[in-house]
Write a structure and sequence with these properties.
The complex is a heterotrimer of chains A (313), B (465) and C (61).
Chain A: H1 9-32, H2 49-60, H3 75-81, H4 116-124, H5 126-129, H6 148-158, H7 164-169, H8 175-185, H9 214-227, H10 229-232, E1 248-249, E2 252-253, H11 258-267, E3 274-275, E4 278-279, H12 293-312
Antiparallel strand pairs in A: 1-2, 3-4
Helix pairs in contact in A: 2-6, 2-8, 4-8, 9-12, 11-12
Chain B: H1 8-35, H2 49-81, H3 88-110, H4 124-146, H5 155-174, E1 177-181, E2 184-187, H6 191-209, H7 212-226, H8 233-247, H9 262-274, H10 276-291, H11 296-299, H12 301-324, H13 326-332, H14 337-365, H15 373-406, H16 418-423, H17 426-464
Antiparallel strand pairs in B: 1-2
Helix pairs in contact in B: 1-2, 1-3, 1-17, 2-3, 2-4, 2-7, 2-14, 3-4, 4-5, 5-6, 5-7, 5-8, 7-10, 7-12, 7-14, 8-10, 9-12, 10-12, 12-14, 14-15, 14-17, 15-17
Chain C: H1 22-41, H2 44-47, H3 51-60
The chains are: A mainly alpha (313), B mainly alpha (465), C mainly alpha (61).
The complex binds protoporphyrin IX containing FE and fe (ii) ion.
Chain lengths: 313, 465, 61
């Protein structure tokens, strides 16, 4: 057993190197030479200059220490975040930013989930949205100008095509603009499918079972404060999301049924979605998984109650 | 008496440097642990959580870990080859370069220069510096071993040689990048492939920084400090080769349920579970060695450190493989369970073993005895308590997080929003800070003890002239 | 207590130099067998199992 190899350091080192290279070859190096490691989705586009600038900032600030960017093909995870991650989404990610710890939520499907305004406000003060969030504030990125010449050399190094206008336009933008641009295209190459919620409720064509029910209105008011106020304003007079007390629904005058209210809370909106012949701009999140039926109807009851109040004044 | 001079100055230098960087890393660690439950402790731009966390990991892995490895492996190599280092001046330069590199590394990470590859965050100019450090180390270690005065290479030298060649391969490959400027580069690997390369690297950084060199220390200092010979040479051999062979197959256990091809995940998990056997080869060898005289656990303070260290290594190498299984990963991946696992390894196994090695070395090179065994015992119980509080609170909250994320209502909808899950962590995160504080106090006892021993040694040397 | 040279002889026990504890050997070979079983069961081109199929199945329920 005390073979010669333990007396010959050079031979020993060579043998050790060969031994460590076997697993390296099989699991890392050989797969790299095959196409299975280099998939690309059809809809995937390389980053634009401002998006890459945002991604650089994401790396610089170490957002990946708190946020993952990969949804696992597990039922509840897909319900929470959306379609599970596909190998072909990441072809331009150098390197990948999947992360390994979810102190904050996964961001693989955050692109387009909220309007830009939401992100600006949230980055400036996450605690204004969720008082108990531990996310640091990033408002200090505002006003820090991007450098067009730096970004040109970054685009060159990574090998993405760009236009001169695109680069010079960067001088107008700051780091917060860039970060929002990046966050908004994360996962954009994957079509949003409805989450596989256990019950996909159909339109019920019923009026609110709680209409006028004072208890329900009261609990609706609480739910509103917890889930809706930071977008629609404390009095529902509109902020990031539209005024809920006026006689417009999705930018068109004229009332809609309780159903439609129920539906929009249920499903949220996506840009271009058409509801009752009205076109949404997107940005209203879905509450299907976080509010149950009764809670959603209570909210509708509450909204109706404040609309009536508004009309009486 | 011996007719040759060991270069103890460089060894001492590395030990002092590693302790210094350890203090920096631990302070930053406490800081980020507070930021997790009190975001007001974020001070932009340099001191937000996202930047500080990598200062913490790099400060301790590179500063405390690698610094101690360089110094202690030099010491072990000189002893086992029965000669001084082949290039003592180069070793001294190594020490200065090491401190310069870590200083720049810390500053660059505060500044946000970050490749976003875990444990390979440093930007490319510093990567070159790190490679130079390892090349110098390799040259000195190989040279000294080749010119050795003892024919047989003891197992500690095998582990040191395996560390040197593997770290070289890992570090160079994972850091390959196209520079865009002095401060920014883009990895040459993209997407799924870059994930596969990174975790091949990441897992083996654990294997060849936090495992093999520490085992080199264990196999050397355990017999030295107890006077008990290692139980089975044959077990050492089988465990060594199967360990270094199997480690490199297993990186994919960090990517379970990601878009990485299923077969790579499966192969990685199969080898991950196998790793229990070679790891426990060393654990069994350690236990059987001290099994010849268990009274040492009471009478010899160093035995306690080494045996508790290898016990935590044993627990780690059962817990780690288990985490790799799909069914377990489903629940605990991305949660605080993982930092719980990490810190049983780093605080329990690595720091325990390194501290004990230093307790052995410092009195030896100053020709004296340890300042106080009582203080060493206090150090032992404090770091043990701190570490257990840390790991156990994180296991609890990790499982809780995993369970809340999965919980559904009877109608199939999710039961908890993300925020509802988050706030349930806060009490545990606060307890973790307490555990960290206790650990820190333990480390201060250690530093005090080493400082007093050095003082005593210096006074002795002065009086004997 | 100064011991500047290392006597390699003293590092390793003589009587037990060739011992491999039986329990450890069982562990070693048992885990290899389990690894083969696991690899065969969860490799798509061998068993047909895949992460994606497992997911599809879980949402059908
Ligand atoms: C046989 C031995 C081991 C195996 C198979 C193993 C396995 C694992 C696995 C599967 C994970 C990923 C958990 C997850 O993200 O879901 C992990 C994480 C980790 N382990 Fe271990 N472990 C072992 C021993 C150790 C030891 C001894 C240490 C340290 C001294 C250690 C340090 C770490 C670190 C630092 C991470 C975190 C990686 C990250 O940043 O995500 N492990 N280990
Ligand atoms: Fe690992």
């Amino acid at each position: 057993m005390t073979g010669g190899i333990y007396k010959k350091p050079v031979l020993f080192a060579i043998v050790a190197t060969v031994v460590i290279l076997i697993g390296t070859m099989v699991t890392m190096f050989i797969p790299m030479l095959t196409s299975q490691m280099h998939p690309r989705l059809e809809d995937l586009k390389p980053f634009t200059a401002i998006q890459l600038a945002g991604r650089d900032i994401y790396q610089r600030e170490g957002c990946n220490n708190c946020h993952t960017q990969t949804v696992r093909p597990l039922k509840t995870e897909v319900m929470r975040y959306g379609e599970y991650s596909k190998a072909g989404e990441f072809a331009y990610d150098r390197p990948f930013l999947w992360g390994s710890k979810r102190t904050g939520p996964d961001l693989a499907r955050v692109g387009g989930k909220y309007p830009d305004a939401w992100h600006y406000r949230h980055f400036e003060n996450p605690q204004a949205f969720f008082a108990e969030s531990n996310m640091p504030a990033y408002g200090w990125l505002k006003g820090k100008k991007l450098s067009p010449s730096d970004m040109e050399s970054h685009m060159k190094a990574i090998g993405f095509t760009y236009s001169v206008e695109e680069i010079s336009a960067l001088s107008e933008k700051d780091e917060l603009d860039a970060l929002v641009s990046y966050v908004q295209i994360i996962g954009a190459s994957v079509k949003k499918k409805p989450a596989p919620a256990a019950v996909i409720e159909e339109k019920e064509h019923v009026t609110n079972p709680f209409a006028g029910d004072l208890k329900a209105i009261e609990s609706g008011e609480k739910l509103y404060a917890a889930n809706c106020a930071f977008c629609h304003g404390p009095n529902a007079k509109g902020d990031i999301g539209p005024d809920l007390t006026d006689d417009e629904f999705l930018y068109v005058k004229g009332d809609v049924s309780d159903d439609d209210y129920f539906e929009i809370i249920n499903n949220g909106t996506a840009p271009g979605m058409v509801e009752e012949g009205r076109t949404a701009k997107g940005g209203m999140p879905s509450f299907k998984d976080s509010l149950d039926r009764n809670e959603r109807w209570s909210l509708v009851a509450y909204i109706r109650a404040i609309q009536v109040k508004g009309a009486q004044k | 008496m011996n007719d040759y001079q060991y270069d103890n100055g460089t060894v001492k230098g590395f030990i002092v440097s590693s302790i210094f960087w350890g203090v920096v890393g631990i302070i930053v660690g406490l800081w980020i642990s507070i930021q997790m439950w009190s975001p007001a402790w974020n001070i932009p731009p340099y001191f937000t959580f996202g930047r500080l966390r990598v200062v913490h990991t790099n400060g301790l892995a590179l500063g405390l870990g690698v610094g101690a490895i360089f110094g202690i492996c030099y010491y072990i190599t000189m002893r086992l080859t029965k000669r001084p280092l082949l290039f003592p001046r180069l070793a001294r330069f190594h020490l200065y370069l090491f401190n310069a590199a870590i200083t720049l590394a810390a500053l660059s990470l505060f500044a946000g220069m970050n490749q976003s590859l875990e444990y390979a965050e440093l930007e490319w100019p510093l990567d070159i510096g790190v490679v130079v450090l390892w090349v110098i180390f390799a040259v000195n270690i190989f040279g000294t071993i080749i010119k050795r005065k003892e024919e047989q290479m003891y197992i500690s030298l095998w582990f040191i040689l395996a560390t040197v060649v593997t770290v070289a391969v890992l570090y160079i490959v994972n850091n390959l990048a196209v520079p865009a400027s002095l401060f920014k580069s883009y990895s040459i690997f993209a997407g799924v492939n870059s994930a596969n390369v990174q975790w091949w690297y990441g897992h083996n950084a654990v294997g060849f920084i936090f495992t093999t060199p520490i085992l080199a220390m264990f196999y050397y200092f355990l017999p030295k400090s107890t006077g008990l010979p290692i139980y089975s040479h044959r077990l050492s051999i089988v465990a060594f080769w199967s360990l270094v062979f199997a480690y490199l197959w297993t990186g994919a256990h960090h990517l379970v349920y990601t878009p990485l091809p299923d077969w790579i995940q499966t192969l990685g998990i199969a080898f991950t579970i196998f790793l229990i056997a070679p790891s426990w080869g060393s654990v069994v060898n350690g236990f059987y060695t001290v099994g010849a005289d268990w009274s040492q656990m009471r009478n010899n303070y160093l035995t306690k450190f080494f045996i508790l260290g290898i016990t935590f290594y044993g627990l780690q190498t059962i817990q780690g493989p288990t985490q790799g299984l799909r069914i377990v990963s489903q629940l605990i991946h991305y949660t605080d369970w993982v930092p719980g696992h990490v810190h049983m390894g780093t605080m329990g196994w690595v720091t325990m073993t390194v501290a004990a090695s230093i307790y052995y070395i410092i009195p030896k090179i100053y020709n004296t005895e340890i300042h106080s065994v009582k203080v060493a015992n206090a150090h032992f119980y404090l770091v043990l308590t701190g570490q257990l509080i840390f790991s156990i609170t994180m296991w609890f909250t990790g499982i809780q997080q995993g369970a809340l994320w999965k919980a559904t209502n009877p109608d199939g909808t999710l039961k908890y929003t993300f925020m509802e899950g988050l706030i349930k962590n806060y009490p545990f995160w606060q307890m973790r800070t307490v555990g960290g504080l206790i650990f820190t106090v333990g480390m201060l006892f250690f530093i005090y003890n080493i400082y007093m021993t050095v003082r005593k040694g210096k006074a002795l040397a002065a009086s004997s002239i | 207590m100064i011991n500047d040279t290392d006597n390699l002889e003293a590092f390793e026990a003589k009587e037990t130099v060739n011992k491999l504890p039986v329990s450890w050997l069982i562990l070693f070979w048992g885990l290899i067998l389990w690894g083969i079983y696991y690899f065969v069961s969860y490799t798509p081109s061998i068993s047909g199992w895949s992460q994606e199929k497992a997911y599809e199945e879980s949402i059908r329920k």
